[in-house]
Design brief:
Blueprint: E1 5-8, H1 10-28, H2 36-51, E2 54-56, H3 61-80, H4 86-109
Antiparallel strand pairs: 1-2
Length: 117
Amino acid sequence: MSSLIKSVSLLPLGLGALIGVFAIVLVLLEQYEPSPLTTFAIVLLTLVIATQGLKPFGETVGYQILQALVFAFVGVAEVATGELNTLAVVFILVGCAGFLYYGSQARRRGVWESVSS
């Protein structure tokens, strides 16, 4: 098996950082007060989105499964802390749909195969 990190793409790294900065700004402006669990979930989402920049790992079925699970986790974290809202439900649905789709891809082609192949 070859290395899962051969190069780094700055655009996904920047997008991950932008999501983190956006969340910090909302908290500092007192527009959003996440619970500790939701804060952890958002930090995890930021890291996973930034990880897409690690090529070829960010192009694998395994990465897509990881990303789907983290999206679902963010939604579940919101709901678990009493923040039942449309965005939380969308995160859960998108995460579960992604997990089912990419899970079937992983079963057929393998976890470390490229999504585009």
